[in-house]
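User: Structure please.
Assistant: Input sequence and predicted structure:
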Amino acid sequence: MDPVQSIQNSMMKPAAGKMSARPGFEARQAFAGWLNQAVQDVNDKQIASTAATEKMARGENIDLHDVMIASQKASVALQTTVEVRNKAIEAYQEIMRMQV
């Protein structure tokens, strides 16, 4: 499932059961789960790219365009992750500069 869809689905569902003793606990858990899934997805793409490259280097039957597509998917996923991280750090730094 797409990480964006999974977070949208989790936001649409009402909280089941009692409220947690700590406010926002469910939201933190949902965000942590989404973040872990997104990082795992990037890792899976990197592993698939490496495997395809190794198959091609060994001379196995794999098309060059499949290797390049896997490589580009991994590259774009990693670049996106780095940009999201940079934006999160910028937002944190901006919050820290705010006067209370």
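The helical segments are 3-12, 25-58, 64-97.
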